[in-house]
Design a protein that fits this description.
The complex is a heterodimer of chains A (360) and B (293). Chain A has 360 residues and is an alpha/beta fold. Helices cover 38% and strands 18% of the residues of chain A. By secondary structure, chain B is an alpha/beta fold. Chain B contains 9 helices and 13 strands. Chain B has a 9-stranded mixed β-sheet with strand order 3-2-1-4-9-6-10-12-13, sandwiched between helices. Chain B has a 4-stranded mixed β-sheet with strand order 5-11-7-8. Strand 10 of chain A pairs parallel with strand 8 of chain B, so a sheet runs across the interface.
Chain lengths: 360, 293
């Protein structure tokens, strides 16, 4: 099939993933097929960058799906532009992000699976680096480092999980894995998937905990992905619901001895959730109107009071092992507004070799 | 997939001088040993610690090429003794409170294997952990030319752009050419004195990958930066300052040199770098001048 020429970069855009000429990567072994799914909903601003960062990997055996949730902001136009290079795409209403990802994975034929949200980006040759790491050991899960950048973080940070992060005992207490920088074997997804569709924020953590029960993880030393923090980022804007989900998951997988210690907190939690449920009553309409009038105060002042402690408890309150398991480095003298700049602060453009080429 | 032979990798000798820093020592040792570099010679020279350092070293005794614990004449004396015992082709030392990154030794080994004529290597991503910061900070510094090194004489207090000692690696040939010694008279800036002798010979090659983390804590020797700087100034005062050129003129020269296939280190302005190219599965050497991106 004759492809049209790859779309040129948008005017004024430079660096990865815009003006970049990928070369087909090859190794001493057959590169297994990798399936990437991008769920998207009304993020046309970032979607093109994401699609390009996957397609410009130069990975010869790539299967890429874009699952759109019925966007109305021109996302479909962007997807159509890249249609010849996609394995498939749909644009229809769905039940949230996890539902979209599951739809994509149900059509996947790849040996290695991963998803990339529509505002994140892969680093150059990221897939190749991840796959290369899996070849050196018997692991079904591979993860790497991730650069966080965005308007709320002018100096980008590199988040580097430690070698022992992919461990059930650690992972069920804290979510230390950066989702864009992970890939897993299709066997794992068949065993533990699909993703929990009742969760909307932390389904990745839920899935990773299940994986960590049975699989062995390998860490890739390279910078794999760039994670964008912006005001409508789900992990930031969905504050209260997200906290509730995180707490729910950490309680579900909590070790029994800790559960006994924290059991006196449960009535408080139930009470908070009970208060939250008032929003679903007929009064909610009135509350909604008043909250629209006072957007800064929000719906429920009472719960908002507990937001920060709940969030802290859910993310890293129970575990005291962040220091060993997650190394964070921040750029000190170089700010970054684009993916290319953010990766450049940590040598992400010049790829960090995970294992030697001589290992292959 | 072939099994890696030790002979494929250049032998790296890492020396750790330690004295009563048991709370950091284990992390330092693990940051080196966890990399499972196939051809590593790791030596710990302890200055007769009285805390739990000895038990920590005993724990990893089987992975060490050599270790000893006896009173010595300071940090640089311990390092000197360690280097005298070492045999690796590539040399470096890591202080007992600093850390390597998980990729450091493999990256360094690959680069030195790829460029046999390269003498010494440092990073342009200097990472340090100030005591008030939550985590390490990365300072991007690309200019490592000889001119820059020697012309900072008298300006060290103002522009504290030192080479990061933890992420600097050199070949044994360079070490032997420059006298195979550290200046044990200096208490703080022994590394700076070593760089000055290296710079007489050649300027380092940089790689834009962070290689080591430098922890700044209150009881640390170099945390008393003033003493370090005054010693470094003394070292620099032994050398003539490079003749002054207007900045605009240097920039103009750089523009011209871009089109010249140069090999000479004109005005000491070369600051070369290496980069990894995945599709070529190899490292490339880039000849660069100051301010040239």
């Amino acid at each position: 099939m004759q492809h049209p020429p790859f779309p040129p970069p948008l005017t004024g855009k430079t660096g990865w993933p815009w003006d970049f000429k990928p070369e087909k990567v090859s190794a001493g072994f057959d590169l297994p097929r990798v399936t990437i799914v991008t769920p998207s909903y009304n993020q046309a601003e970032y979607l093109e960058e994401t699609i390009r960062s996957v397609l410009l990997q130069g990975y010869p055996n790539l299967e890429y799906f874009v699952i759109d949730g019925g966007s109305i902001d021109g996302s479909v136009k962007i997807i159509k532009k890249y249609e010849p290079w996609l394995a498939g795409w749909v644009s229809e209403k769905d039940n949230g992000q996890s539902n979209a990802i599951n739809k994509g994975f149900s059509r996947a034929t790849g040996e290695w699976l991963g998803w990339l949200n529509s505002d994140d980006c892969l680093a150059p040759y990221a897939l190749y680096n991840l796959i290369r790491t899996t070849q050196s050991g018997q692991s079904d899960f591979v993860f790497g480092s991730c650069v966080q950048f965005g308007v709320s973080r002018p100096y980008p940070r590199l988040k580097m999980p430690g070698p022992s992060v992919f461990n059930y005992e650690v992972l069920r207490l804290i979510d230390l894995l950066e989702q864009p920088a992970t890939l897993w074997n299709h066997r794992l997804f068949r065993k533990h998937g699909p993703l929990a569709e009742d969760l909307h924020y932390a389904f990745d953590w839920d899935f990773f905990i299940k994986c960590a029960l049975s699989a062995k993880g390998a860490r890739c030393a390279s910078v794999i992905a760039a994670y964008r923090l912006h005001s409508i980022n789900k992990s930031i804007s969905g504050d209260l619901k997200r906290s509730k989900e995180l707490i729910g998951i950490s309680l579900r997988y909590l070790p029994n001895d800790i559960r006994k210690r924290f059991v006196f907190l449960l009535p408080l939690l139930w009470f908070l959730i009970y208060v939250q449920s008032f929003q679903k009553s007929p009064h909610a309409v009135l509350r909604k109107i008043s909250s629209l009038l006072r957007p800064s105060l929000g719906n429920c002042k009472f719960l908002r009071l507990f937001k920060l402690p709940l969030e802290l408890w859910a993310t890293h309150g129970l575990a005291d092992c962040i220091g060993e398991n997650l190394i964070t480095i921040q750029s000190a003298n170089r700010t970054a507004a684009t993916v290319s700049d953010a990766l450049g602060c940590f040598g992400g453009e010049t790829v960090l070799p995970a294992n030697s080429r001589r290992n292959l | 997939m072939t099994k890696t032979k030790n002979a494929d990798w250049p032998k790296i000798s890492v020396i750790t001088p330690s004295f009563n820093q048991g709370r950091f020592l284990e992390k330092t040792i693990l940051s080196i040993l966890d990399q499972e570099y196939p051809n590593l010679e790791y030596i710990i020279m302890d200055g007769g610690s009285t805390d739990d350092s000895i038990s920590t070293i005993r724990k990893y005794e089987s992975h060490l090429a050599y270790w000893e614990s006896m009173p010595d004449g300071g940090q640089y004396d311990a390092i000197q003794k360690g280097f005298n015992r070492s045999s690796g082709e590539i040399m470096a030392y890591l202080n007992s409170d600093d850390l390597y990154f998980p990729w450091t030794l493999r990256v360094v080994g690959e680069i030195f294997a790829a460029f046999p004529e390269m003498e010494w290597l440092t990073t342009s991503c200097v990472s340090a952990t100030p005591p008030e910061a939550q985590f390490p900070l990365v300072f991007n510094r690309s200019n490592r030319s000889r001119r820059r090194f020697f012309e900072t004489r008298g300006k060290l207090l103002r522009q504290r752009d030192f080479l990061q000692q933890e992420s600097t690696f050199w070949r044994r040939s360079l070490w032997e050419k420059t006298g195979s010694r550290l200046d044990t008279d200096l208490k703080y800036a022994g590394d700076f004195e070593l760089w000055s002798r290296f710079y007489e010979h050649t300027s380092p090659v940089t790689v834009h990958i962070p290689l080591a983390m430098f922890r700044i804590h209150n009881e640390q020797k170099t945390a008393s930066l003033d003493k370090y700087i005054s010693e470094a100034e003394k070292v620099l005062s032994r050398y003539p300052c490079p003749f002054w050129l207007p900045t605009l003129f240097i920039r103009f020269l750089n523009r011209i040199y871009c089109f010249v296939p140069f090999d000479a280190n004109w005005f000491g302005m070369r600051s070369d770098c290496v980069e990894y190219r995945v599709h070529e599965a190899d490292w490339v050497y880039k000849k660069k001048l100051e301010w040239q991106d």
